[in-house]
Amino acid sequence: xxxxxxxxxxxxxxxxxxxRGNYDEPFFPDKKLAGEFIDRLFHFLFIPFKGKYDSxxxxxxxxxxxxxxxxxxxxxxxxxxxxxxxxxxxFFFAIPGIYRLLLKDAAAIAxxxxxxxxxxxVFVAYPGFYATAVYRLAHxxxxxKVKVLPRLLSEHAHxxxxxxxxxxxxxxxxxxxxxxxxxxxxxxxxxxxxxKIYQGVTLGxxxxxxxxxKMKRHPTIENNVIIYSGATVLGGDTVIGHDSIIGGxxxxxxxxxxxxxxxxxxxxxxxxxxTGAEPIGFLI
Length: 284
Hints:
The chain is α/β, with parallel strands linked by helices. Helices cover 42% and strands 11% of the residues. The protein contains 7 helices and 14 strands. The strands form 3 sheets. The chain has a 5-stranded parallel sheet. α2 packs antiparallel against α3. It is globular. The relative contact order is 0.08.
């Protein structure tokens, strides 16, 4: 290809990128700053700060600094009828209630996980708690109809923990994620109180058609349900009744009555040592 043609193609491509990225009203916040803000807020709320702040006044100053950092993320994101000041006030007004919910989540983990030493250990070391904390904060922004930022926060937690919780999901009190890697909780999922979920669980949609985006596509999990690792529960009409247990690797697309136990039955076949025959004939 001649050098002149290469230059022309490159120029055309640059023009295409410029037009594609030249929005009249930019609406993407800085992804790095969003992650830094949510980590800073998480540390402020849950990581011991003895020696870092020597007085309540210093703690209050940091809280005001967090508000300023949050406000800087909101420019060009918000609906025209709302202001940055309104959103900041609403979000930080909600934080005390979110904080108390998260204390219940941490207490549930410390109570039910035999490996847990203390609630403080949950704060500093448990990825499930971190993912839940970021979800609850992002969910508040989702309720405020802030564009893009709730997803950036939830994807930041996803990248750090392997736990994917859409900020639109509704999750009740004392939520317990154990281990957590590979968990997926979809946008219209509804989860009740005192629910325990283990690694690899998917609460997903049966129908992924774009025209059904506004419908309830994800399941409802009622109070006091345990869902063990690898289970997949799909569909907006799928309701797992309260006080049920869903075993590992179960695949569910239909409702389950309260107090049910659902499990996948395994079959054990012992090889014949005399013949050496394999019970399953396959090659890898």
